[in-house]
User: Fold these one by one.
Assistant:
Number 1:
Amino acid sequence: MATLRELKTRIGSVTSSEKITGAMKMISSAKVHKSQQALQQLLPFKNQIRQIMGHILSSGVEFHSPLIEEREVKRVGVVVFGSDDGLCGAYNLNIFKHLLVELNALRQQYGEDVELTVYPVGSKIVKPCLSLKGGNTDVRLLPGIDSKMEGKRVNDFTEMLRHEFSSGSLDLVKVVYMQFHSIARQRLAVDVLFPVSAATLLEQESGEGNDDRLYLFEPDPNSIFNELLPMMVQSTMNEITIENRASEQAARVMAMQSANDNAKKLQEELQLEYNKLRQQSITTELLDILGGQVER
């Protein structure tokens, strides 16, 4: 049985842990808010591109771009977003499980001979991804590419993927990430980055600002389309990166909340045990005193 001193030490340790998890929860909550602000700042740029694309697509011109070219799929690139820091519960494990499901689905859809290249983003997702290397599956680690990367690096990474697709090194590029909805809710998502799907273009065409007014395009709609399309993909990739970062911090908030609740519960149990042991000790001392008086 633990002594009073040992119990007191354990209670102090649990109290310290509770304070630490509480502080980490506050920090993660602030980072979630920061990511939400970044998403709001990205929204005007995304909406402006969507509006312009809508006007161009409604012009009735036939568009050509290597980014919308669909071809026989023999090589697939899969970008998977994880985290660079721990203490976020089963966040990376859930993403990796979803990645396995997606890779199996690709093999079923395009055959066992399809070449798969995984691009892990975030040090905590790298190790499990490396275990997939072998056969027709490759894992590429890119320097400077992590879950904390900001706009320029995201754009450079997107440009690299665009070059891989345009050159024919990849026939399809998908992104596996955690989509942010709220602190308590994040949803695993898989988006097609290249080729840009017809559904995505139709979404732009039906977007805000697409009215019946006539527009003059200079130089020509197809040239503007080919300039805007990479920008649209870059804005999508930036949004995915920020959403993943917000989801990571939200998962950490929930993990710290769970740890905090467990610490409080343990503290209450230890305090109860301490009080019982202390009461027992006082009772024993009183009995010793009364026994001594009786002997006299």
Number 2:
Amino acid sequence: MNVRFWAMLALLGSLISLAVGTSFAKSLFPALGAEGTTAYRIVFATLILMAVFRPWRRTWAWADALPLGLYGVTLGMMNLLFYSAIKTIPFGVAIAIEFTGPLAVAVWTSKKPSDWVWVSLAIAGLALLLPWSGGDGASALDPMGMLFAFLAGICWALYIVFGQRVALRYGSMATPMGMLAAAIVVAPIGLFHAGSALLDPQWLVAGLAVALLSSAIPYALEMFSLNHLPKNTFSILLSLEPAVGALAGWLVLAEHLTLTQGLAIALVMAASMGTAWSAGKNKP
């Protein structure tokens, strides 16, 4: 088997780990809330990344605070908003809505007329989830949960823009420093909402598991995949995330999607795959 096959398998493993980790994280909401669970994920992931990359070996200046801060704050808020979304709407649906963020960035940077086909698919998928679309899926979805997912998508778009800038400037050190900035923002929010429950040993162990499954393991597997797969192939496979999330939500959380919601997810996935395929096809 060649390395590309293992890279594809690694990316699939990353999606499964992330989906299982996020599904498990949702089970902690009754005790810690979305805010406390997000704090666990971000803080433990920060500690793991700090131990691996040891960014203190590099000399930093105050001028580095703004770009890394913007990157980290969008990362932290993206996680906090997404966890707030899945409190009240199905996991797979939340991912599909959130996917509009990177999809918008891809279309905006491409500006090819053909990409409006994929935009139309995404809009059609989202329209099925909104109240005015009728059908069985819209009325079952909490409006605040959908709003949180949309806002998480905006943060994901900003995360991509800011992330590209800091990656070019700081390389691999951008991730631990950005995560540190995210922890500085999210940890106080989590402490305010969850309080002393965050110090309970049973939840500390669970929080570490969330960080490993949702951040550390997926990040390591994705880095391996990125180094051995073309970008468009990586993006197309990444578009499977809503489906994997929906499956994990069903198996782990017993979340059942309506036919309308399933169709909406499929349309957003098709839009994401089409955008990635179009970008690869037209690459000089």
Number 3:
Amino acid sequence: MRPVFLSIFVLFFALVVSHAAVALPMRPYSGIGVLRINAADLVDSVPLYDEPGLQRNGTIEPAAVRELTTWLFGPGEYIYLLVTARKGDWLRVECDDAGRGAWLQKTRRLSYTPWELFLKGKVITFLRNAPQKQLQLYVQPSLSSSGVPLTSSGTMKVIQIQGDWSFVLQDKINAGWIRWRDHDGRLLIGLAQSPAPQSR
């Protein structure tokens, strides 16, 4: 009887662990920048194309976009898409967790910003599924020196972006360089979530 009970316990534990492992989305590729859309402007759906101006394959659905990127950018009046390529007024955006993309034409309603400008001045935090070995604060933007370990729960303010590195202010005293995306181009950070206002 005991071996059976032990087997059931091990199976249950494995299921709990596997569920926890898949609860967080895979860290997406950063691409070249961020497309910001005011949700109030999406009265008419934004068309998506397989290639710029050719073979329309769908539209942007606000609810689906929020589900895709809210965990990176937080809730609010804006919704965001990761931009992976640009051709003139056309932007290729990620459309799902698998990294599949489509093209859309930039209009005045759609605000595209390269990462270097988008992150500057933002308060960020490491993603919960970022590898622990990547959570380091360095004196220089180089892996040749040893870094100071950080926690995934701390927040930092971005001062400057240099390639895959970001110079951040951790508090009024500590500052240094972190990797904001890994060597594969996957994001290590997201925007820090503002605490919900407390009701009186």
Number 4:
Amino acid sequence: MSFDLRSIFVYIFGLGLLLILIKLLKSPLKWAARFFLSCALGAAAIVVFNLVFAKAGLYLPPNPFNAVTIGVFGAPGFAVLLVLASVI
């Protein structure tokens, strides 16, 4: 397989574009990974809460909205959801 000068420039240009794209997407991908990790931890917190406080009659439905709320707002979001669950 022979490479001419034009195909070498095309490969170098494509590699440069790929590196620029990775550099631009590095921060948003980090943010998205952190967001999904915090949502997963929020869902785990809901499951643990339901296991621990099941006999006390406290229950928080495990759904994506609750997981995101707890993942984003942390303990205050958890408290708000508990108050809302007890009122409704």
